[in-house]
């Protein structure tokens, strides 16, 4: 699911338009909060993903659906109108790329380093604080953490900072060991 959030040329163009609009209207933080909520909804709701990506749902129905979701979530009017425009232009399927592009633009503008921590089990506050402290020391900036649970990694952590991935997962270590044993 997190792999859905890759930037694309189209996603970057639309993200830049939303970012510029939010900046010009002085509503950047409100729109950013909407984008964060939208990302969470995208991850958690198969119906939202289906609404945005299905080729059998007409652009008009996508406009109605996305704006209804945004209105129900009490999104900023700029965000609601943007989602309607995205669907009207037949680009609702690019929503995940728009979210990724907007997050990148916001992080650059605010000087924030975004980091995603993937663990096999939910992390407690003490563990998150330790990770944040280590990243702060390593990066020289306070990171903004998002967490995700992926039982498939078996144990350990994966930490994504920008395009870099620090993989200390048990699954990767076992795969490396298996590969080494096959070569021996």
Polypeptide structure, described:
- The structure is a single chain.
- Strand 3 and strand 4 form a beta hairpin.
- The protein is an alpha+beta fold.
- The longest helix is centred in the N-terminal third of the chain and has 17 residues, at about 30-45.
- It has eight helices and four strands; from the N terminus they run H-H-H-H-H-H-E-H-E-E-E-H.
- The chain starts with 8 loop residues before the first helix and ends with a helix.
- The radius of gyration is 19 Å and the shape is globular.
- A four-stranded mixed β-sheet has the order 2-1-3-4, sandwiched between helices.
- Helix content is about 60%, strand content about 15%.
- In DSSP terms, counting alpha (H) and pi (I) runs of 4 or more, how many helices? 8
Proportion of residues in β-strands = 5-15%
Number of strands: 4
Q: Kindly report how far apart the N and C termini lie.
A: 36 Å
**What is the alpha-carbon Rg in Å?**
19 Å
Structural category is alpha+beta
Mean pLDDT: 91
**Unreliable segments of 5+ consecutive residues:** none
What is the string of helix and strand elements?
A: HHHHHHEHEEEH
Provide the spatial order of strands within the biggest beta sheet: 2-1-3-4
Topology overview:
Layout: H1 9-24, H2 28-44, H3 46-53, H4 59-72, H5 77-88, H6 95-110, E1 113-119, H7 125-139, E2 143-149, E3 156-161, E4 164-169, H8 170-183
Helix pairs in contact: 1-2, 1-5, 1-6, 2-6, 4-5
């Amino acid at each position: 699911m997190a792999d859905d959030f890759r930037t694309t040329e189209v996603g970057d163009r639309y993200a830049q338009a939303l970012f510029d609009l939010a900046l010009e209207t002085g509503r950047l933080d409100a729109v950013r909060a909407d984008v964060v909520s939208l990302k969470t909804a995208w991850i958690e709701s198969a119906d939202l993903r289906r609404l945005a990506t299905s080729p059998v749902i007409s652009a008009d129905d996508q406009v109605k659906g996305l704006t209804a979701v945004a209105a129900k979530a009490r999104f900023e009017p700029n965000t609601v109108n943007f989602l309607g425009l995205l669907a009207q232009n037949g680009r609702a399927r690019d929503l995940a790329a728009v979210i990724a592009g907007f997050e990148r633009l916001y992080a650059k503008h605010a000087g924030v380093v975004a980091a995603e921590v993937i663990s096999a089990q939910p992390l407690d506050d003490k563990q998150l604080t330790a990770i944040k402290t280590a990243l702060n020391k390593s990066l020289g900036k306070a990171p903004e953490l998002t967490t995700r649970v992926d039982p498939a990694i078996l144990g350990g952590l994966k930490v994504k900072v920008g395009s870099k991935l620090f993989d200390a997962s048990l699954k990767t270590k076992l795969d490396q060991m298996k590969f080494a044993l096959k070569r021996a």
